[in-house]
Amino acid sequence: MCFLGFGSYFCYDNPAALQTQVQADMKVNTAQFMALYAWYSWPNVVLCFFGGFLIDRVFGIRLGTVIFSIFVCVGQVIFAVGALINAFWLMEAGRFVFGIGGESLAVAQNTYAVSWFKGKELNLVFGLQLSMARIGSTVNMNIMGWVYSRVQHLLGHTGHSALGLTLMIGGTTCLFSLACALILAYLDKRAEKLLCKEQGKTGEVIKLTDVKDFSLSLWLIFVICVCYYAAVFPFIGLGKVFFIEKFKFSSQEASAINSIVYIISAPLSPVFGLLVDKVGKNIIWVLCAVVTTLASHIMLAFTFWNPWVAMCLLGVAYSLLACALWPMVAFVVPEHQLGTAYGFMQSIQNLGLAIIAIAAGMILDTRGYLFLEVFFSACVCLSLIAVVMLYFVNHLTGGDLNWSAKKREKMQKVTATEAEEQERLRRQNEDDLAKLLPKADDFSLRNRYLSKLGAQVLPDNYSSYLSTMAHRSMLK
Questions:
Q1: Backbone angles phi, psi at 395, to 5 degrees
Q2: Cα–Cα distance for residue pair 200/197, rounded to 1 Å
Q3: Judging by beta carbons within 10 Å of its beta carbon (0-12, 13-18, 19+), is residue 140 exposed, middle or buried?
Q4: Other CB atoms within 10 A of residue 28 CB
Q5: Residue 330 CB: number of other CB atoms within 10 A?
Q6: Measured between alpha carbons, how far is 472 from 464 in angstroms, rounded to an integer?
Q7: How many CA within 13 A on the CB side of residue 352?
Q8: What is the C-alpha to C-alpha distance for residues 83 and 344, in angstroms, rounded to an integer?
Q9: % of the chain exceeding 90 in pLDDT
Q10: Crossing angle for the helix pair 172-195 and 61-84, nearest 10 degrees?
Q11: For residues 290 and 299, is the Cβ–Cβ distance under 8 A?
Q12: How far is 17 from 138, CA to CA, in rounded Å?
């Protein structure tokens, strides 16, 4: 399960690891280069709503995982072939196909985890999966430049063919993930026979009509998500050349510092998840993360201090925000709307990333890195304003976003107890009412007995009259 997404995350940031090579070999500007990230995000604006449906209703978890893994492999191959034949439009098409499989594969991976580990070590499994994803991104950042130099040495020249071969070599990690998908399908099928285990379900029930019922708190969470991640992922996509040009780092040093965000996130995400669970105060943690990220971008933009400090702070803030922000969705929407809420959140996140990626490339081409950092800082400021508004909205509405897990569990028990008490009283009232109502058999026997004695027989509707009187007496 952990290695299932390794290839996808490794190849996602191939462009970032090879930015100078892609721009030089394919003769494209920064805006065109960043379009490679935008083309990954475009299909996921829609697929976030349908990925879970395809897994649950159409393919099933086993076949769905294999199909999405194949999309990732085919997309990476098309991406590499586009470089080999010097066709940038084909590289963009490859990233589009890669995007179709990438996000849906993550949904399938989480579904497998819940199916196998629900009620056991689920939080640990999610932490391990996240760590493995970050390791895939980190290895890519630090090894792809070296692979390109080796391929260049073997070919004896630079150019699009060297880039294409390098990307094809990187694609072997996707084949590895496909092999993991096939092995998982076999193990899950075997468990179905031996343990009578059912196929996993995503649990996503998405109804677009639920969007009109979303609260102001949820919309503010969406704004925080889009504005924050817009200042992180596009920055990492352009970060390598930024560190080379501004701080005069070597290519290897620039790759190392650009990957530090993912390196820090790998071990810290599970730790911060546990911390937020214990302490609560989700909005406060999100506020701290956003302020720290803003400080990091300001340091990178306006100072020549050692950038390792700013990037380490960014890595810590990025890990903290993910642990505190995403669970808040479950606190502000009913359970039956969770699938719609998370799908919509991922959808607008991908839409924002696609637009911001293109905008960042255009700003860099026309204005330079200083304006680009100011742009990213402005995005974080919008996120900060949304966090402050969320704090006051939560306070005014008596919301529970800052409760700890312990307090939340206690309140849920109180609510459950009250519901059980109401249900007990309702059943007791029904039982008392049933005792007051005469039984049909007893009533007919009484009439037969009265007729034998020569007494007046009670009319048939007398039973219903008694019933009405009993109801009235209960209402009083």
A1: -65, -45
A2: 9
A3: buried
A4: 17
A5: 12
A6: 12
A7: 21
A8: 34
A9: 54
A10: 170
A11: no
A12: 10
Q: Are residues 291 and 341 in contact, defined by beta-carbon separation less than 8 angstroms?
A: no
Each residue's pLDDT tens digit, 290-331: 999 999 999 999 999 999 999 999 999 999 998 889 888 888
Radius of gyration of the chain (CA): 30
- Residue 117 makes CB contacts below 8 A (sequence gap 6+) with 125
Instruction: Identify whether the C-beta of residue 261 lies closer than 8 Å to the C-beta of residue 314.
Output: yes
Per-residue model confidence (pLDDT) at position 78: 97
The sign one gets for the Cα dihedral 271, 272, 278, 279 is positive
Structure tokens at 177: 């993930």
Instruction: Look at the block and give the residue holding tokens 């991640």.
Output: 229
Q: Which residue is listed with tokens 């969320």? A: 390
Measured in Å, how far apart are the chain's first and last C-alpha atoms? 62
Q: φ, ψ for residue 215 (rounded to 5)?
A: -80, 165
CA–centroid distance for 318 within its chain: 14
Which stretches does DSSP call E strand in 304-356?
A: none
Going by the DSSP 8-state scheme, the letter that residue 88 receives in this structure is H
- pLDDT of 78-115, one tens digit each? 999 999 999 999 999 999 999 999 888 888 888 888 78
The backbone torsions φ and ψ at residue 268, rounded to the nearest 5 degrees and listed phi first, read -80, -25
Say how many CA atoms lie within 13 Å of 431 toward its Cβ: 6
The burial of 326, by beta-carbon neighbours within 10 Å (0-12 exposed, 13-18 middle, 19 or more buried), is given as middle
* pTM for the full predicted model: 0.81
Rounded distance between C-alpha atoms, residue 32 and residue 203, angstroms: 38
Which residue, 78, 102, 96, 104, is CA-closest to 37?
96
Residue 7 to residue 66: CA distance in whole angstroms: 13
State the sign of the Cα–Cα–Cα–Cα dihedral 256, 273, 348, 398: negative
